[in-house]
Design brief:
Radius of gyration: 22 Å
Strand order of the largest sheet: 2-1-3-4-5
Low-confidence stretches: 1-19, 188-192, 241-246
Number of strands: 8
Helix content: 40-55%
CATH superfamily of the largest domain: Resolvase, N-terminal catalytic domain
Largest sheet: 5 strands, mixed
CATH class of the largest domain: Alpha Beta
Mean pLDDT: 76
Number of helices: 11
Number of domains: 2
Strand content: 15-25%
Order of helices and strands: HHEHEHEHHEEHEEEHHHH
Distance between the termini: 23 Å
CATH architecture of the largest domain: 3-Layer(aba) Sandwich
Structural class: alpha/beta
Length: about 250
C-alpha cells in the first residue's frame, strides 16, 4: 500500500499537481455492507488523504448497502451522481473499486463513464485513477472490477462451505439443524430454537470481527426472544474455529 504523503503524484505521475492539489473540489464516498461493519476506518483514511493533499472536501456520502445491488437502487450513490452532475466537484474519492460496486464489471465501467462524462474523475486509495480514456485505462479498470466481483464470489463460496462445516460441528455438539435451516434443535432437549439463515451468517460475521461470545449471543437474543444466551453460546462455540477463518 502506498503512503498517503504525495499520494496523488505517486499514483498518477502524468497528472499535474494542479489537478488534485491546492483546493481541488472533491466528494468522499464510503460504503459498508452491514450496519455492524466499521465505516470509521474508511473515513479516517480518506480524510487523512484529503488533509495531506490539501483537497477541498465539499461533501461526504455514507452508504450501508451491498455492493451487489444495482446502482439505480442505491440512493446514496445516486445522490453522489446528482451532486457531480451539478458541477460541484472535480474528483470523487473511494477507498477501493469494490466500494463503487461488486455487482459486475460492466456496471463498474458504466459508473466510471457516468462520472467521466460529467467531467468528474474517479480516484481510489487502492487503485489510483479509474479512467476510460485509452484502451489501457479501460483494461486496468476492467481488471480492478473483475477483482472486486471475484472477491464477492469467493466470500459467497467460503460462507457456503462454512455453513456446511457448521452444520457438522453443531451436530457433533448435540444439535440438529432442520432441512429448512431455520430451526436448531438440541438433541434430547424440550424444544428447538428458531434461527434464520441471516442470523446464522451473522453469527459467523460477528465472530470474525472479534466480538465476544456474550456480545454475539446478546445481539442474537435481541432479534429473537426464543433464542437463549446459553443456547447461542453453545452454537457459537461449536463453530468458533470456522468463524475465525471466514
Amino acid at each position: 500500500m502506498v503512503e498517503t504523503t504525495d499520494l496523488i503524484q505517486e499514483l498518477e505521475p502524468n497528472e499535474t499537481n494542479n489537478t488534485l492539489l491546492g483546493g481541488t473540489k472533491i466528494a468522499l464516498f464510503f460504503r459498508i455492507s452491514r450496519e455492524n461493519e466499521d465505516i470509521e476506518k474508511q473515513k479516517a483514511l480518506l480524510f487523512d488523504i484529503a488533509k495531506r493533499s490539501n483537497l477541498n472536501v465539499l461533501r461526504t456520502f455514507e452508504e450501508t448497502y451491498t455492493g451487489l445491488a444495482e446502482a439505480s437502487k442505491r440512493s446514496k450513490l445516486q445522490e453522489l451522481i446528482e451532486f457531480a452532475r451539478e458541477g460541484n466537484i472535480q474528483v470523487v474519492v473511494f477507498r477501493a473499486a469494490d466500494r463503487i460496486t461488486r455487482r459486475s464489471i460492466l456496471e463498474g465501467l458504466s459508473l466510471i463513464k457516468i462520472f467521466n462524462d460529467l467531467g468528474v474523475k474517479v480516484w481510489t486509495y487502492s487503485e489510483g485513477y479509474l479512467k476510460l480514456d485509452t484502451p489501457f485505462d479501460e483494461l486496468m479498470a476492467t481488471i480492478y472490477f473483475f477483482k472486486a466481483c471475484q472477491e464477492s464470489i469467493d466470500i459467497s463460496k467460503r460462507t457456503k462451505w462454512g455453513r456446511q462445516k457448521l452444520e457438522k460441528e453443531i451436530a457433533d455438539h448435540g444439535f440438529a439443524i432442520s432441512k429448512s435451516g431455520k430451526r436448531i434443535t438440541q438433541v434430547g432437549g424440550r424444544k428447538g430454537v428458531e434461527v434464520s439463515q441471516e442470523e446464522l451468517d451473522e453469527i459467523l460475521h460477528l465472530r470474525s470481527l472479534g466480538y465476544s461470545l456474550d456480545t454475539v449471543a446478546n445481539e442474537l437474543q435481541k432479534r429473537n426472544s426464543n433464542i437463549t444466551v446459553k443456547v447461542i453460546r453453545r452454537v457459537i462455540e461449536a463453530h468458533e474455529d470456522e468463524a475465525k477463518s471466514i
